[in-house]
Structures are given as structure tokens and as C-alpha cells.
Amino acid sequence: MNLLNLKTFYEKYKIHLIVWGIYIIYEVFILGLIRGNFLAPGSYVGIYTTNISVFYIYSFFLGKLLNKQVVSFKVIKIPLIILCAVVAYIGISYVLNLTFRAIGILPATATQAVIDSAYVSILTYRSLLFIGFGTGYVYIKKSFEERKKVEALERQNLITQIEKQALENDLVQSQNNYLRSQINPHFLFNTLNFIYNDARKKAPMAADAIMNLAEMMRYALKRPEASEVVPLSEEIEQIEHLINLHKLRTANTINLELDVTGDLFGLRFPPLILLTLVENIFKHGNVSHSTQPAQIKIVYQNNNLNITTINMINDNKGKQTESHHVGIENIAKRLNNFYGEDYIFRYYKDPLNRYITEIDVNIVNPMARLNR
Description:
This protein is an alpha+beta fold. The protein folds into 2 domains: 39-162, no CATH class; 204-371, Histidine kinase-like ATPase, C-terminal domain (Heat Shock Protein 90). It is built from 9 helices and 8 strands. It has helices spanning 3-12, 14-35, 41-66, 71-103, 117-202, 204-222, 232-249, 273-284, 324-339, and strands at 230-231, 256-261, 268-269, 285-286, 294-301, 304-313, 343-349, 354-362. A hairpin with a 4-residue loop joins β7 and β8 (354-362). α8 packs antiparallel against α9 (324-339).
């Protein structure tokens, strides 16, 4: 055993070593001085080896027994453990006495151990003394363990109360945020409505822009999570608002065609995909070309949805056109999340310097998507 292990052992059993050291010094030296005589060193080795062994063995089995939940079982077993400890103490003491004498630890002139009533009485008293010590040690140890459990439960209850209070605070904060989210849009739309009514007669174009912007903001606020689908007709309405805003901004110089074919009632589609395609046209495309209009074609027939966008590439924007692919890649990921492999998505540049995107999805029962 190296020094590190010795230090660890000492730190773990320091109290035991100190208590046993004090007790042995008291019995060997103080009582020896009082009586005026000392036993042979081998006798002390045998005595305290037996005492300490019985103390810890008895404490171990008593501790195991007290952990049992059946009370009647404890009542039967505890006296049996005490009896076994007494018999073991007497037996170990006798065997060690003979062994130490045989190997020379005890002098050969020492009196032979004789199992008589006096010898048994002395050993019984000593065994019961250390059994009593062991019983007190076990109950004190269990008391400390129970106290630690109570403290642990109290700490856990305190942590639970703190977490509960934090959750309640978060709930109050969330409720406040929700109320603010209800109040602020309501105030905003009322203000926009006031501005629209005030500007309608003086500046009709500005009023139209305000109305289109308000409708797009209203849609954005009520828009569902990205994991859901929305009526495709609502997305098309937002495209029309977006186109109107750009027409007003550019004095109607935009050359863009929106063509919708088929009955879209009940047809649902992932949000933002169509809007992203149209926004890319305005960001990166040439929507003012006189002979090549930008085109948005939405066709639904025979349970098949096809969305096509065509726009001239705006070469004047230089490297900005490269960012076109960021939105395209996001669209591809979202389509894959919704449809797996049951879709086709193509995007390419044709010989006429036009950028083309095509989405093709087979939708067997569009009405069933209303409950999705």
C-alpha cells in the first residue's frame, strides 16, 4: 500500500482510528497503571483483534437486518445475531489464545486457557460490551444516514419549489408577451387603417400600398409553423399583394405575369415556398424586360400540382445573383421534409439567359390535407 492509499484510508476511517486508539490507550495503560500490572503484549493483540472483529462483523449484520422492512423478522433475528456474536467472540478468543501461545506471541509460561464458567463469563461480558458499542454505532450511523436523506429531500423540495416558481414566472411572462402580441398588432392595424382612410382621397397609390402591406403583415402574423401546410390560395393572395407593392414602387413598370389554372379549393401546400420563389424573382431577376416578361405559372389538374417561375437573369447585379441559390436550397430541403421523394424540383438557366424553377407534386386527395 503506497502513501497515497494510506492517506486515503486514513481520511476515510480517521474517526474510527482515533476512537479505537483512545480506547486501547485507556484500557492498556491507564487501567494497567491503576491495577499495577500489565498483560503480555500478545494478550493485548489477541484481545483487541477479537474485540474489533466482533464489533464490525456484528455491526455489519445488524445494519443489514435493520434495512429490512418486516418488523417481526427483525424481532426474531436480532437476538439470534447477538447470540452468534457472543459464541463467536468466545470461540475466537480461545482459538487465538492457543494459536498465539503455539507461535510464541504469548509466553509459554502463561496459564492455559480453560473453558470454565469464569472464563466464559469474562468473555461473555466483553462480547456484550462490544456488542453494545456496535449497536450504538449502527443506530448513530443510521441516524446520520436518515438525516442526510431528510436534508437531501429538503434540498430537492427547495429546488422543486424554485423550479416551480421559475415556471410560474415564465408562464406570467409568456402571458404578458401574448397580451402584448395581441395589443401591438391590433394597434398597428388600426393605425394603418387610419392612414389608409386618410390617404385614400389625397394619395390613392400610397393608400393601395398601405392596404397591400397591411394584408401581408396580417398574413405573416397568423402564419402557421413551418412544419404545417396552408391553403395554396392564401399564398397566391400574398403573391398578388407583393406584386402590387412592387408595381406601385416602380410606377407600374414591372413586366410580370401570374397565371393560375385549375380549382385550388382545399389544396394545401407548405408555406413560404411559393413566396420565396417570387421574392427571388424580384431580388435577382430582370422584371422590367420589355419582350421577356417574368412568369409565375401555377397549374393544378389530374391531382398534379405544377409551379413554374421564369425570369430573365439580371446581369447588372453581378455577384448578387449567386445568393439566388441560398433560397433555392432551402426550398429543396423543405420539399424533401414534406414530400420525401414524391416530388420533382428543378432549377436551371436556359440558352435565353432565363432562370427557370419547376416544382411538380402529385397530390391525390387535396381535401384530406385540410385536416393535416
